[in-house]
């Protein structure tokens, strides 16, 4: 039998049997141009500025998510009937869930104002894509079923939950993978026990009582990975520099003052907010953005040159936590702008507010304001068996309070003055509250 093996740093060997139609579909999807593009998009965006090992791609992560989905369906299928269609939709959906990601993952979405989930649906539905054609060769209705899966409209619902929810194969893979590749140990949890504790009730996945501690550990891992990795100050300051650089380039294009132009090309079209086709969007990856940034280091506009060089040469902004509010915050921002201006810099580009709440899939678990279908449900212990939302059962989860971290990003040249200003405003606020 023809065997396709993928060596994976997290799961060791991901094996597919090409003599099986379902596995042959997965292999063909992996070999499609649209999925191969994910090799050229880093999983953690700009995290390599902080963690030099974080060079892994959306390609490797997506393979891992498909592998975990396969394992979850095999374990669940040993006790529950799962149709062949549901297995195919689940495995293909897990593999292709990140197909719509743009360069450097989430950071570019803020600049171009799009959501990668929308592009994932658009790509699988577009008859011009190789992915769409591969899916249709297997089953002509498969593209529509994947689009419904990504919109959480697919039945059975537990398949959607395994692809995207508060406890899904996506998060289960990226926490361990990102922890491994960054060297940060915060994301480690007992994945095997979580998988073996999954069960189905009606149309939803729940965790058996034996898996409570493993899921608590998973949620804690997620919490600390967001605080220590995904919201790391150096990573976020790199994002601030990139966003400011793209903002300046956009303004120069609109003023027809940018020297290096690739008129009609997808990067420039998206930068100025023009519509692009699916085919055009799929031309875009990390290399396109890096190429333009390197070109911009030789522009006539000194502001763009400075910002682009800071990014390319890793001369990033500094970042300090900011806990001020009210009059203290008002004073800080007024005087901070003056500090940056005195240094000969424009605060519109060199003084950036950063908030943890801007991170997609914010780190802590909360049942408030969330689609009930995406929540985590667990079996209660004792003689009266019930399945309840996990915060109703676990004191650990109830104790995981949300956090608000605000930071200010600015050039290293004004670090001393900015630190002094923050200290003064904080001392003034404390004295005011004491009175």
Number of helices: 21
| Coarse morphology | globular
Number of discrete domains = 2
Major sheet, described briefly? 3 strands, antiparallel
CATH architecture descriptor name of the largest domain: Orthogonal Bundle
Q: Flag low-confidence runs.
A: none
Q: Which range does the strand content fall in? A: 5-15%
How many whole angstroms does the radius of gyration measure?
24 Å
What is the straight-line distance between the termini?
79 Å
The strand order across the widest sheet is 5-9-6
Your description of this structure?
By secondary structure, this protein is mainly alpha-helical. It has 21 helices and 9 strands. The strands form 4 sheets. Strands 5-9-6 form a 3-stranded antiparallel sheet. It has a two-stranded antiparallel sheet with strand order 1-2. The longest helix has 22 residues, at 233-254. It starts with a strand and ends with a helix. The mean pLDDT is 94.
């Amino acid at each position: 039998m023809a065997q396709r093996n993928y060596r994976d740093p997290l799961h060791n060997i991901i094996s597919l049997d090409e003599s099986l139609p379902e596995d042959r579909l997965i292999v063909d999807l992996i070999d499609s141009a649209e999925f191969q593009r994910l090799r050229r998009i880093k999983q953690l965006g700009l995290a390599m500025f902080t963690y030099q090992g974080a060079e892994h791609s959306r390609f490797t992560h997506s393979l891992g998510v498909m592998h975990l989905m396969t394992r979850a369906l095999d374990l669940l299928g040993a006790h529950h009937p799962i149709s062949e269609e549901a297995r195919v939709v689940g495995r293909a959906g897990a593999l292709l869930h990140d197909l719509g990601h743009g360069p450097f993952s989430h950071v570019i979405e803020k600049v171009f104002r799009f959501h990668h989930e929308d592009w994932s649906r658009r790509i699988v539905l577009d008859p011009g894509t190789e992915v769409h054609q591969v899916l249709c060769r297997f089953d002509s209705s498969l593209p529509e079923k994947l689009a419904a899966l990504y919109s959480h409209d697919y039945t059975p619902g537990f398949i959607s939950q395994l692809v995207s929810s508060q406890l899904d194969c996506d998060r289960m893979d990226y926490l361990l993978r990102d922890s491994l590749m960054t060297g940060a140990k915060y994301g480690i949890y007992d994945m095997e026990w979580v998988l073996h504790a999954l069960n189905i009730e009606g149309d939803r996945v729940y965790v058996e009582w034996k898996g409570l501690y493993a899921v608590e550990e998973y949620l804690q891992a997620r919490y600390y990975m967001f605080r220590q990795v995904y919201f790391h100050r150096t990573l976020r300051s790199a994002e601030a520099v990139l966003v400011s650089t793209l903002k300046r380039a956009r303004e120069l294009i609109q003023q027809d003052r940018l020297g290096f132009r690739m008129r009609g090309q997808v990067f420039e079209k998206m930068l100025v907010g023009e519509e692009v086709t699916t085919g055009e969007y799929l031309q875009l990856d990390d290399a396109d953005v890096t190429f333009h940034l390197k070109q911009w280091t030789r522009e006539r506009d000194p502001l763009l040159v400075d910002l682009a060089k800071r990014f390319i040469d890793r001369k990033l902004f500094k970042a300090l936590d900011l806990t001020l509010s009210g009059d203290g915050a008002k004073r800080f921002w007024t005087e901070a702008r003056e500090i940056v201006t005195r240094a000969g810099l424009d605060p519109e580009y060199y003084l950036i507010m950063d908030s943890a709440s801007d991170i997609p899939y914010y780190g802590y678990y909360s049942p408030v304001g969330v689609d009930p279908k995406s929540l985590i449900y667990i079996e209660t212990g004792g003689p009266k068996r019930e399945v309840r939302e996990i915060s109703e059962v676990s004191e650990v989860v109830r104790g995981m309070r949300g956090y608000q971290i605000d930071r200010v990003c600015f050039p290293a040249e004004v670090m001393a003055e900015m630190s002094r200003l923050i200290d003064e405003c904080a001392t003034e606020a404390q004295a005011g509250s004491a009175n």
